[in-house]
Sequence to fold (457 residues):
Amino acid sequence: MHQASMPVVDLRSRDHYLASCIALAQENLSHFGSLAEIAAQERRINCYPRLGQLEAPHQIHLLGEEDPRAVRRAKEAVARGKVLFEHAAAGEGTRLFLGPKYRLNIGRDLKLETIAHLMSMEAGEVIPPETVAAQIGEALQDLLPLSLGTRHMLQLAFDLERLARELGEPPPEVLARQHLLIIVSEEMAAGIKKEFYQWRFYGFHPQRVYFMVQESFHGLNLKDGRFFFDAATPRRLHNHGQMVMQQTIDRQLFSLPGTHAWERVYHSQEAVGDWLQGFVNKISYNIEDLDYLTGALDFPCLGLVLELGEQGFNMVMEVVANNPVKPQKGGMLAWDRELQQDVMIESFQLGDISNRDIAFLNRNFNHYPQPFKSWRRVWDEGLPMPVTVKEGFLYYQPVQGDINFLVPTAFFRRREMPPIRNLKTPAALPLAINCMAAQDRQPGFREFVQRSWERCT
Fold:
């Protein structure tokens, strides 16, 4: 199921990973005379090896009419704490120009004029504040002053409380059973930990909330034919693929004991493996997904995923229609004739294929039935390591979606495929504001937020 024959990334430790990065560059790129040459050939270097053998996807599962039995099963799995909720929030948000998305507090920090300016910068033409105002109405001034990350945590707790009441169980007990994994960047770690303490972990049990700080790395330089990490270069994340690889390394996940925000309890690789074996599914949420804001728990979807898991799939990816007005880059689903399977291919591996030619786009909302199996395969083999040259230095950009080359993977779509809705660039800010306003308008949500805060003061 490999995408290409290449050296295995060594994940025995952080130092082994760094040595792998150098070895991969030395083996694959040492024939280039400079980093500038690599930058000029970046598209060819990263190109999917069987780009000419791709067809329209063959085997997309359909999430059709709601199956009451499957929905009930999904609700019971969540209520019992058998689903792990992972929140990927370490991204740098460089295209948004507003810093890390987790800390983005639109209702408190952004004015109409600022939004119009950011949208104008992206569009290359003046977009007046009046145009933005026509898209959002009064939504901006009515938003609760909550960061995007806080909104994610509160929405999950809000939906779990509703589920508990539906099942006739005490909401505090259902929340206390849940397990979360929060992935943050180094620059955000202290602030997010403080926020969890301020909100008293949003009702979740502190010992069942795991954190991981995704590491950033200096760029690789090239001198006399040898690659080396240059301590004078900017530090950058190695994309979300490194996030899942780092999770397999010993003592990367930690929990907070509940006494002081600076204390951490790190978990061994063996303990993390045992922990993962206790779940029927892991959901990897992306902090930029805007549909999440009015529905963190999608039980018809989860019901289908659990059934696919029983059929032997260890990864399930949802595909959506690309936005026809402003098509965006992202993972493209296609049938690989040589592999005889559908595969998800990241946009920078697509050569000259344009965004408009991507019909089925990865929603970045992945499920991992029996998550220990995909975790173990990643630890055994690592992921493909595409490269990019930024500010004159070489960085890796592995992608989480390439797990679909390691484990049996199913792809599904909804009967009606809406365009993808996420917050990547300033153009999506009006949509984000309207989605946050819709979250605030949910019956009982404002009252839930108020009660949650009062319990913390």
